[in-house]
């Protein structure tokens, strides 16, 4: 069996994990002890893919029921 170290996608250094050729990971939180970053990755046949999660603001579309209408200024002043 062939083994390789998982390299950090940010700094390129070795992490604490070794994988085999037949290892498959999905949504795995990879932590790098050197740069202290954590990234979600997927691995299949030694190919590492970094998963980027969308921000909370971009998750809800414009017409979502959670988007409330903007308040109108009150024109009935005494």
UniProtKB/TrEMBL annotation:
Matching Pfam families: Cys_rich_KTR
Domain of life, per lineage: Bacteria
UniProt-annotated stretches for the region Disordered: 55-78
InterPro entries cross-referenced by the UniProt entry: Cys_rich_KTR
UniProt name for this protein: Conjugal transfer protein
């Amino acid at each position: 069996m062939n083994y390789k170290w998982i390299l950090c996608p940010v700094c390129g250094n070795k992490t604490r994990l070794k994988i085999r050729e037949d290892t498959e990971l999905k949504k795995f939180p990879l932590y790098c002890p050197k740069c202290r970053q954590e990234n979600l990755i997927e691995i299949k046949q030694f190919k590492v893919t970094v998963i980027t999660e969308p921000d909370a603001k971009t998750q809800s579309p414009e017409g979502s029921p959670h988007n409330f209408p903007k308040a109108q200024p009150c024109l009935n002043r005494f």
